[in-house]
Amino acid sequence: MDLSKEKVDALLGFLKQTKDREATCEDCLTAMAEFAEKHLEGKSIPESLKAIEDHLEFCGECKEEFEALLATLREL
Amino acid sequence: MAVETDWIERLNGEPTARDAALADLRELLRTKLRHAFSSSGDAFVEDIAQDALLKIHTSLDAFEGRSKFTTWALTIAVRVGYTELRRMRWKDVSLDQLTGNANAVDASRTDSQNEPVASAARKQLVDDIHAIIEEKLTQKQRDVLQAELSGMPQEEIGRRLGSNRNAIYKLTHDARKKLKKELEQRGYSQEDLEPG
């Protein structure tokens, strides 16, 4: 397995954010609605949702869905 | 249109109330998904709204009341939509094309030979990363990591491996933890892991 510079950089970015315990995509789906409402209300994120905040920094798929959800909710 | 507090009651209620609630919810999903997936066309939105409606209706027990019902429903609908979009975008790409396990040319295997000369420290880090990947990760972890670094969504990697997005996330998380721990054991600090 030979990695290009871009892939090494991407991997290093992943490694910097890697924690022993992380929320999974399912955890994120379960809490995303609550997280999105808190985010839109401008409230501070409670400790119970910090792992979701970290996951959204890391997981491109969940982040894409979260941003689409925010855009949709802003239209409500 | 239902108010937030009575969605669950109506969706679990007698047939007339339930059908009316489903119709209301379908309309809400259509309207909001049309906004979220404006570039995908009305037929796509109709299909996604219907699929999401079914998923929401069969998952009502999972709604914990930690948000508005409509926010929760839209979260599911957005995921249904993106899952389908990703499936369509990646349908012609195999895992082997990305992992170099097929005869197809894998550009990543030659990329690093054409790059500018890196510093000695950087070169050592890259060599160590490659060594750890080869020595400490399983073949499955290597394949999934390669596919992920090539941009394939975890959902699509899972689909090709008969698995799912959550399991793939756990697999790559284990791989990342192993890589990070091994790098730390070789003396690298968090600062050394800055992308170059």
Structure summarized in a few sentences:
The complex is a heterodimer of chains A (76) and B (196). Chain A has helices at 5-17, 25-41, 50-58, 60-74.
Question: How would you characterize this protein structure?
Answer:
The complex is a heterodimer of chains A (76) and B (196). With 76 residues, chain A is mostly helical. Chain A has helices at 5-17, 25-41, 50-58, 60-74. Chain A is 71% helix and 0% strand. The longest helix of chain A has 17 residues, at 25-41. The mean pLDDT of chain A is 91. Chain B has helices at 7-11, 15-36, 42-58, 69-90, 95-99, 108-111, 120-136, 139-149, 154-160, 165-185. Chain B folds into two domains: 4-90, Orthogonal Bundle (Rna Polymerase Sigma Factor, Chain: A), CATH 1.10.1740; 95-193, Arc Repressor Mutant, subunit A. The longest helix of chain B is centred in the N-terminal third of the chain and has 22 residues, at 15-36. Chain B has 196 residues and is mainly alpha-helical. Classes of the chains: A mainly alpha (76), B mainly alpha (196).
